[in-house]
Batch of 2 targets.
Target 1
Amino acid sequence: MKGDPETTLAMVLRGARQALQAERRPLPQPGPGQVRLRVRACAVCRTDLHLQDGDLLMARWPVVPGHEVVGAVDALGPGVTALRLGQRVGVPWLGGACGRCRYCLAGQENLCDAPEFTGCTLDGGFATHAVADARFCVPLDRLALDDASAAPLLCAGLIGWRSLRLAGDDARVLGLYGFGAAAHLIAQVAVAQGRRVHAFTRAGDVAAQQHARALGCVWAGDAEQAPPEPLDAAILFAPVGELVPMALRAVRKGGRVVCGGIHMSDIPSFPYALLWQERQLRSVANLTRADAQEFFAALQTLPPLRVRTTPYPLQAAQQAMDDLRAGRFQGAAVLLPD
Ligand SMILES: [Zn+2]
Ligand SMILES: [Zn+2]
């Protein structure tokens, strides 16, 4: 849908537990340090569902969701010199950080005390245009993937990467719980690095298990099943607290369980014996610009990722979210503005 060049079409959430509404708005102008993008693709993330459900208390309503944005720079705000007109860039979840708090100063801007989040505290990419802080945009000039395939890398890929790093470079036998957008990408990275990857899905999700094997996982089965060998580490992408004790049971002594999601249902109580023997349980929160640099640099050295996407027109964004919630597709849903 082209529309008037002086306006933008945005899919807007006016508050928690409301449906997305299409809105025609004046074209946003980039302020100092910002760029405006013509959005080419924006992937839909499980976090967008948590936003719509009212689980993200930092949200600023109304908001345009979408934090896996790929676009072309079409206007530069005052002072922007690091990006150029026409350049392909990505906009990830971390849309800004204060640069002054103890976390920013320690290289942990993902934990910033005054962060901005794309598509949550800032308008995101469920729109024909988006404005972003140029310092938090990720240049994608060298990425050998089309726009729709690149979009899921901006969150699913990046959070997967950070989770994989926290699982440990020494984790040779890795379990992935929940085989959706993030797992199908990071499984390929882990396999290419020579790790043995085991995929755990919802009981009986044969399609996801086949997908996992096709991408090089050595084993795929139901989450309740024990893996055929003890895991060095497990990453949980499904937002299901019951998986925590299951994953702890599947990892060896000294193993790690990493929770990759922003929101999870309550973790049931479990015997201390599951955590004992120096097993570790930790979460992953957000990401840093360094993660993005490292991830996209690593992709240059690996075989091309096979990114499974399901395209939707921008105005079908609510349908895409509903389909994600119901698990109606493999891989990632991607909104295409026209
Ligand atoms: Zn996300
Ligand atoms: Zn900070």
Target 2
Amino acid sequence: MTLFETAIFAPLLCIPLLLFPQFALPAEFPLFWGVAAFAIAGGIAGRSGTFASAAFVTTFLGGFIGYAVFFGLAFSPLNLLFTVMHGLVAGVAGWASAKRHVATVRAEVKLENDEKRRCKMCGVRVGLWAKKCWSCRASLARYT
Ligand SMILES: [Zn+2]
């Protein structure tokens, strides 16, 4: 579940934020850490998604809920703008990683279904044992 993955994982990565005030760190550092944590959580959660657009919605909601719960408890009162911003970061990261994931899966499926030795990414003829398309560099490794 992408939504719950993000909602649980992002706050876990933010736990060090509670310790930062004890160190002499720049004021901006916790902010960067928080954004990075949500980007990582969204990216990891998005990899399990099937559709990029669905991954965006679920990681956004996951990031939003995760931020609202964690920061609502840790640093109240809650800043709604920051909550939306962090959710958006997680959503974009989830969307990007899901898009990459879906693209590789589609290329492999297309090649497996192809009877002729043609690259399905660009349509050129490729050699019988070619591992990569000579034209568009698409991987043909799964074509057996
Ligand atoms: Zn090609």
